[in-house]
Design goal:
The complex is a heterodimer of chains A (about 120) and B (about 110). Chain A has no helices and eleven strands. By secondary structure, chain A is mostly beta strands. In chain A, strands 2, 4, 5, 6, 9, 10 and 11 form a seven-stranded mixed beta sheet that branches. In chain A, a hairpin with a 6-residue loop joins strand 4 and strand 5. The N and C termini of chain A lie far apart (about 35 Å). The model of chain A has no long low-confidence stretch (mean pLDDT about 95). Chain B contains no helices and eleven strands. In chain B, the strands form two sheets. In chain B, strands 2, 4, 5, 9, 10 and 11 form a six-stranded mixed beta sheet that branches. A five-stranded antiparallel beta sheet of chain B has the order 1-3-8-7-6, with no helix packed on it. In chain B, strand 4 and strand 5 form a beta hairpin. Classes of the chains: A mainly beta (about 120), B mainly beta (about 110).
């Protein structure tokens, strides 16, 4: 099973709302990722968690707050977003291998389509 | 700074044709390179992953090659089918500094029946 699930599929929120995106995997992966993808653009990395610790934050505004409660779950908390934050938010996971030569395939979820009004 | 470029940006071919998609990267210090396909509005599906020490990987009608010294990878699709129509993305993970992955802008492929 190489499934990464994301909820909700679609989310519409106002600029004053607080909402959360959820991502889950049961492959025993220890690295989890959030990407943002605008229309007709490639995914852009936002955050990486490695062994439940935040290892990469690509200078993402603080209105996006990631959380990794355990090795299977990854959340993205949203607060005071702007209309330009509307995008497809993709979660991915990988085994988290850090030994050179070992494969570390990333598996992606279907994404959450976020619209900020 | 790693930059990943994919050529062509779009490609339209008749069904049954063999085709090659290109990916180039500027920093050869990579951990791996992964090819994905993405259908409109959907997530990414992993096609092939090539480790930095490998030269090629094959899966069914797909073959991906890697020439790290020249900063190039190709994805070869044999006997293309309409179901292959999608955007194909290559992604490069750097060798140091964690799991940062840089994507190319993708090649939009349309296979005509």
């Amino acid at each position: 099973d190489t499934e990464v699930t994301q909820t909700p599929k679609h989310l519409v929120m106002g600029m004053t709302n607080k909402k959360s995106l959820k991502c889950e995997q049961h492959m025993g992966h220890r690295a989890m990722y959030w990407y943002k993808q605008k229309a007709k653009k490639p995914p852009e990395l936002m955050f990486v968690y490695s062994y439940e610790k935040l290892s990469i934050n690509e200078s993402v505004p603080s209105r996006f707050s990631p959380e990794c409660p355990n090795s299977s779950l990854l959340n993205l908390h949203l607060h005071a977003l702007q209309p330009e934050d509307s995008a497809l938010y993709l979660c991915a996971s990988s085994q988290g291998n850090r030994i050179p030569g070992l494969p570390d395939t990333q598996y992606f979820g279907p994404g959450t389509r976020l619209t900020v009004l | 700074k790693q930059e990943v470029t994919q050529i062509p940006a779009a490609l339209s071919v008749p069904e049954g044709e063999n085709l090659v998609l290109n990916c180039s990267f500027t920093d050869s210090a990579i951990y791996n390179l992964q090819w994905f396909r993405q259908d409109p509005g959907k997530g990414l599906t992993s096609l092939l992953l090539i480790q930095s020490s490998q030269r090629e990987q094959t899966s069914g009608r797909l073959n991906a090659s890697l020439d790290k010294s020249s900063g190039r990878s190709t994805l070869y699709i044999a006997a293309s089918q309409p179901g292959d129509s999608a955007t194909y993305l290559c992604a490069v993970r750097r060798n140091t500094g964690g799991f940062k992955t840089i994507f190319g802008a993708g090649t939009r492929l349309f296979v005509k029946a």
